[in-house]
Amino acid sequence: MERSMASRMAALASVLLFLVASACGNGDHDDDHDHGHDDAAHRLTVWEEGREAFARYELHQGSGRIEGTLYLSIDDAPLPRPEEGEPSGWIRLGSGSDADEAELVLRAPGRADFELFFGEEDRVTLRAGVLLEDGEEWEVELGTVDRAAGEPDEPDVELAVHDKAGQWRLPFAAEPARRRQVDRTLTGTGRVTADPRHAVRISSPVEGRIGSGDVPLPVVGSRVEAGYPLLSLTPALGGEGSWVDARLAYLQARDAFERARRLQEADAISRTEFQERERTYEARRAGYDAALDAGATGPLRIDDRDDHLRLATARAGVVTRLHVQPGVAVDRGAPLLDLHDPDRLHLDVLAFSDELRELGNITALEIGT
Questions:
Q1: Are strands 184-194 and 199-203 parallel, antiparallel or unpaired?
Q2: Pairing between β-strand 329-330 and β-strand 208-210 as defined by DSSP bridges
Q3: Helix or strand or coil: residue 198?
Q4: Of 128, 220, 227, 260, which is most buried, counting CB atoms within 10 Å of its CB?
Q5: DSSP secondary structure string, 273-334?
Q6: Which residues have C-beta within 8 Å of that of residue 326, sequence separation ≥ 6?
Q7: How far is CA 302 from the centre of its chain?
Q8: Which long-range contacts link 329-333 to residues 24+ away (Cβ below 8 Å)?
Q9: Is-contact 68 55, C-beta < 8 A?
Q10: Up-side HSE of residue 185: CA atoms within 13 Å toward CB?
């Protein structure tokens, strides 16, 4: 995966071509569902800080039944199985007295089959809870299940879903592509998106207005290095509690304290007055720092220059989205732009299951536009 390609996220919104390479050796093959069945598979996926819950199920509208498999992983590894025959948790369709609940038993690491029935409501929530090794219960809301949803949108071609390693988020390092001899390859289509676990949103530290000339806004898809200027802010017209006021009060207190220090050296000021000026200086400096930091989020470096605040990024990244334009007024804490790590992307790949079964273990991905 070439880094320059990873940087151009805007260009990657179109359909991509993937070349998937395999290591030598045989992988464990799971039995596929009969994908010629009238009830096609629906999918619900949730990611929560390194945890993934993925439900794949078939919807039987006539009998009011759903049956499928729940996949669970933590830090890209399937959830370990408990002792033989012990339930791992529960899964529930609906809520209150109308809900149908069943035990979850992992028949393989990270995999549990389930069968549930609708009650009186036709549009209900699917939830699950599992007990982790440290005793914590991980409860997750997977999404809404609609009894009348029918078949999900599927490609026109005859495709099947690969229900083993392809369902887990596999870690790959981004590097310039190197040609090498591989045992087996296949091609597929899909998309590349920013990994939400390695993306940040930068917000405004103060109320102000986006500058229109001194610091141009970065272009979506451009890569920025640590220290790169992102934008500038000018004071809001008629705004109260401006950082300019806080800065003026701080500078005045600082000058008064510096004079007090010189007077103290000449023994020309009382200890009480010196301590009073020192306390005023510390309080106003803290107020100025708070005025700049209270609303800010994300990796920011703030440079206060006269009537402008210049904001620079404190880490490298690629601009995913801009929330502002030059001249626009923003409140404290308002989103300015989003950054993502170009070396940590999320890939969705669609390929034929019979070809995937022949691969064994996936060892490399080559992405082409």
A1: unpaired
A2: antiparallel
A3: helix
A4: 128
A5: HHHHHHHHHHHHHHHHHHHHHSS--SSEEEEEETTEEEEEESS-EEEEEE---TT-EE-TT-
A6: 210, 211, 212, 213, 217
A7: 25
A8: 329/207, 329/208, 329/209, 329/210, 329/236, 330/204, 330/207, 330/208, 330/209, 330/210, 330/233, 331/204, 331/207, 331/295, 332/204, 332/205, 332/206, 332/207, 332/294, 332/295, 333/203, 333/204, 333/295, 333/297
A9: yes
A10: 14
Residue with tokens 């929330």: 323
**How much is the pTM?**
0.45
pLDDT digits (tens, 9 = 90+) for 184-235: 677 777 777 788 888 888 888 888 889 877 788 888 888 888 888 899 888 8
What's the pLDDT tens digit per position in 317-366? 889 899 999 889 888 888 999 998 887 777 777 777 777 777 666 666 77
Contacts of 273 (CB under 8 A, 6+ apart): 260
Domain boundaries, the chain: 1-32+160-189+349-369, 197-340
Structure tokens belonging to residue 318: 């690629």
190: nearest Cα among 347, 22, 45, 7 = 347
Cα-based distances in Å from 188 to 14, 183, 350: 14, 17, 5
CATH class held by domain 197-340: mainly beta
Bridge partners, residue 133, by sequence: none
Please answer whether residues 54 and 218 qualify as being in contact, where contact means their C-beta atoms are separated by less than 8 angstroms: no
